[in-house]
Amino acid sequence: MGFDITTLASDWDVKILRALSAFRSRVVEKLQILKKKLGEGDFDALGEIRQTVLQLAAPPELVKELKTKMLSSGMPWPGDEGEQRWEQAWTAIKKVWASKWNERAYFSTRKAKLDHEYLCMAVLVQEIINADYAFVIHTTNPSSGDSSEIYAEVVKGLGETLVGAYPGRALSFICKKNNLSSPQVLGYPSKPIALFIRRSIIFRSDSNGEDLEGYAGAGLYDSVPMDEEEKVVVDYSRDPLLNDGKFQQSILSSIAGAGKAIEELYRSPQDIEGVIRDGKVYVVQTRPQM
């Protein structure tokens, strides 16, 4: 009497899929109960919802599709580095989804008189460039409203110290669009910490909050890297962006040039995020400037 190992494996796969389906059903049921509590004014349910989202198991179909898309885009597949790395990635994805129910985001939709259920959350998957510098560009100067002038801010390392709640100032500058070779520094940096990271992946929130009428949803939701960043104390006396005039002019002009090109492409003022690595400009995202 022999064993058909293929049939045994198939039966086991079916049992696993059924167990996953039942588990997801219980999680979905719990979420529905918590959302009902939230609708009745129990705001403590927000934290419970976030924790419940983190209990979700990944459907095999989603894992397969995600792996196919990432590999076809030339990105590393976390599962190739072991099950633990995939679990890190899946947890990061769930944290982005869960951020839909953070307090600031939820109450901002109420203030705008929007049904929170109208808000949809997608997750962008991007490979992290271990940046030398990160920048934000406004292609119309937000202080003066001057559309002939680009305003930008630059920090050492990754952009989280620029867009997140980190103390200190970034290097700020303006540049006329008709004279990109002559950027004018407005303020020098004082941020004490820069962030750097190994080759990794970041999962970025991409909600329709920026498209809902009367609601500015940018910056309310989380972006989560798979790996923790390394915090490095910045020594500005050794930074060529500050002590090498030619290097500074080249980098700032390149940033301004990227801003002008993207604005011309989309034919409207843009709010742009990007990084510099080995003197090259990489644009991470752009959106219409509000």
UniProtKB/TrEMBL annotation:
It is an enzyme of class 2 (transferase). It is found in: Plastid, Chloroplast. Belongs to the PEP-utilizing enzyme family. Residues 87-164 form the Pyruvate phosphate dikinase AMP/ATP-binding domain. Homodimer. Transmembrane segments: none annotated. One of its GO terms (cellular component) is chloroplast. Keywords: ATP-binding, Carbohydrate metabolism, Chloroplast, Kinase, Magnesium, Metal-binding, Nucleotide-binding, Plastid, Transferase, Transit peptide. Its main location: plastid. Coiled coil: none annotated. Its EC number is 2.7.9.4. This is alpha-glucan, water dikinase. One of its GO terms (molecular function) is metal ion binding. Pfam families: PPDK_N (PF01326). It comes from the Eukaryota. Its cofactor is Mg(2+). InterPro entries: ATP_grasp_subdomain_1, PPDK_AMP/ATP-bd.
